[in-house]
Amino acid sequence: MPKPADIPACPEAPSVQSPARVVREYDISLVTPLFGGGAEAGIPDESLPIRGTSIRGQLRYWWRIVIGHQLGSRMWQREEEVFGSTDFPSPLRVHVAEQPRILPVDPGEYGSAGDPAAYALFSAIESGRQVAREGPVFRLQLAWDDAQGLQSRRRGQNAQRKKEHRAVLPEVVQDIGLDIIEALRAWCTFGGLGARSRRGCGAVFCQELASALPHLPGSIYLAPPQSNAVAAWKESVKAYRNFRQSPRGKKHQKVIGPKTVRVPGRSHWPEADSIRKITGSSLKPPPGTPSNATPADENSQDHSVPVVPEHLLPAFPRAILGLPINFHFADSPGKTRPGRPYKDPQDVQLTPVLPDGVGGSDRMLAPAITRPLWHQGKWHPAVVIIKPSIPSGLKLKLIGERARADGGDLSYDLPIDRVVNSSFGVLRPMRSYASALSALADFLKETGFTEVVP
Question: Which of 74, 27, 79, 67 lies closest to 214, judged by CA?
Fold first, then answer.
């Protein structure tokens, strides 16, 4: 057995140089009620109300809007460098350092039927779910690799690509800090968390990043300032709701079940008459009922006569405002019953259909965002219209179980020219434009909104 003096000294640990990380922290506040945001859709999570994975997804989306769209074919490679992929481990870490304490409340506290908030929160109201009150502040921490770390990741990626006999990528990865900060700035200015964020629910704000409006491919419309963010939010939603739901025919008396109520006339948008034409169903008075000699948009008994020019049908211009769209007719046979030729159509849904070989989902995000926007020291109602990207070969499909007049299932294809078409300009809500987005911009200018340029 060797003497202690004969035992060699333990060698020093090898020097390990780990890549340096850039770390930034921001205080982010919720300025409108949050609908959902937890692990279970539509339900606020009191123990973990703000999820880093959700914020990461938002940053990726807004990066594509403010930076990625300018890169053309390079967009996907740069997105991988910033947010990672299976080939390139993510250099970005998103962490909520301090979770806020939220207060769940009934969405009805923000307004009853007819209030703009009820329009934005309709799904929470219909499902009987609570929302989280505005006001909480959380600490967001972002950390990403510096130049050394990025190059290390690229070397590992290229080594693997060589083994797989794939082309290697450029050795140098440009700094990603600016990409991350600009995506964060855009999210804090235009975005939010949870469901219905495009209607301004769960809107977020960061005072540190609010010095200037980010540039984006689209237009920003602001109305005069309001006393607080929630008031500004309601005004922005009100403007959008009024555009989508008007103009309508003259109000008139209508019998619904045991009650006689006063209701608006039929919509001058063409979707309802289009669905009536496609399904073969429309409300008709009993045989022998004398005509009351009122215009079609004021007649509560006969919907078989279109309100809009019949030669334009079918037309679905509001599809450009986001898909899918669910249509419900008050005078339908009822959800559990098949379609009937003498009733208005059964519930149907308009969905996007991408061409074969093109990946995607069954949704098209609304290009118009309503929310409060901090500008020059005040909260303004804002409507942001992002220039939509319509995939080549896109078409639409109108579907509905037992929605045809004979009670059969409905599946009806529509080309994209049934959404945007110069002939639609004669329709009252289209205001002489081929696209409903152009009509929306014109409507906003007429109702007190002004376009601002960042």
Answer: 67
The mean pLDDT of the chain is 92
Q: Identify whether residues 68 and 207 lie together within a single domain.
A: yes
Q: Encode pLDDT of 300-335 as tens digits.
A: 788 999 999 999 999 999 999 999 999 999 899 988
Identify whether residues 31 and 87 lie together within a single domain.
Answer: yes
What integer is the mean pLDDT of 162-176? 95
Whole-number Å distance between alpha carbons of 306 and 319: 20
Q: What is the DSSP letter of 29?
A: E
Does residue 393 lie within any of the structural domains?
yes
For residue 410, the model assigns a pLDDT of 98
For 24-35, the pLDDT digits (tens) are 999 999 999 999
Mapped to the 3 state alphabet, what secondary structure does 337-371 carry?
Answer: CCCCCCCCCCCEEEEEECCCCCCCCCCECCCEEEE
pLDDT band at 17, cuts 50/70/90? very low
Is residue 394 helix, strand or coil? Answer: coil
For residue 299, the 8-state DSSP code is -
CA distance 301 to 342: 11
Which of 215, 233, 253 marks a domain boundary? Answer: 215
Tokens of 267: 């919509």
Provide the pLDDT for residue 406: 96
Question: Residues 275, 184: one domain?
Answer: no
9 to 3, 4, 12, 19, 82: CA distances (angstroms): 13, 10, 9, 30, 45
Q: Is residue 308 part of a domain?
A: yes
For residue range 59-115, list pLDDT tens digits in order.
Answer: 999 999 999 999 999 999 999 999 999 999 999 999 999 899 999 999 999 998 889
Pairwise CA distance, residues 138 & 131, whole Å = 17
Q: Which amino acid is at 27?
A: D
If you ran DSSP here, which 8-state letter would residue 21 be given?
E
Verify that 277 and 202 share a domain, yes or no.
Answer: no
In a domain, 224, yes or no: no
Q: Are strands 218-222 and 92-98 parallel, antiparallel or unpaired?
A: unpaired
Same domain for 410 and 373: yes
Residue 229 lies in a domain: no
Burial class (CB in 10 A: 0-12, 13-18, 19+), 382: buried
Range of the domain at 143: 21-215
CA 242-195-361 angle, to 5 degrees, is 95
- Please tell me the distance from the alpha carbon of residue 328 to that of residue 349, in angstroms, as a whole number: 9
409: amino acid identity, one letter: D
Query: Is the four-CA dihedral 372, 374, 380, 386 of positive or negative sign?
Result: negative
Instruction: Name the one residue in this structure whose structure tokens are 């939509």.
Output: 388
The answer, yes or no, to whether residue 16 has pLDDT greater than 50, is: no
